[in-house]
């Protein structure tokens, strides 16, 4: 069930990114969800895009995406 919710959230954020492609927070959040969903490559791509749009976002995500 949790996996389905994460997948739906990723889809919703992807739709929002289509409407607001310069919103770094959307990429950051989708990256976080992709990481939770086991999509390391997708998470990294999203985080790189978020940082490209807003380099300051790196301060918010530092350390939050490491495996425990």
Protein model, in words:
- The chain has 68 residues and is mainly alpha-helical.
- It has a single domain (2-61), classed as Serine Threonine Protein Phosphatase 5, Tetratricopeptide repeat (Alpha Horseshoe).
- Helices cover 74% and strands 0% of the residues.
- The protein has 4 helices and no strands.
- It has helices at residues 2-19, 24-36, 40-53, 57-61.
- Helix 1 runs antiparallel to helix 2 and helix 2 (24-36) runs antiparallel to helix 3 (40-53).
- The longest helix is centred in the first third of the chain and has 18 residues, at 2-19.
- It is globular.
- The mean pLDDT is 90.
Provide the descriptors you would attach to this structure in a database record.
68 residues; Serine Threonine Protein Phosphatase 5, Tetratricopeptide repeat; mainly alpha; 4 helices
Helical run tally: 4
Total number of domains: 1
Q: Radius of gyration, rounded?
A: 11 Å
Q: How far apart lie the N and C ends?
A: 23 Å
CATH architecture: Alpha Horseshoe
Outline the biggest β-sheet: none
Uncertain spans = none
Elements, N to C (H/E): HHHH
Relative strand content: under 5%
| Residue share in helix | over 70%
Mean pLDDT: 90
User: What is the fold named in CATH at topology level?
Assistant: Serine Threonine Protein Phosphatase 5, Tetratricopeptide repeat
What is the top-level CATH class? Mainly Alpha
């Amino acid at each position: 069930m949790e996996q389905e919710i994460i997948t739906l959230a990723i889809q919703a954020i992807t739709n929002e990114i289509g409407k607001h492609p310069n919103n770094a927070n959307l990429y950051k959040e989708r990256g976080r969800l992709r990481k939770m969903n086991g999509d390391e490559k997708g998470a990294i791509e999203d985080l790189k895009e978020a940082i490209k749009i807003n380099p300051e976002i790196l301060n918010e995500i530092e350390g939050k995406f490491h495996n425990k």
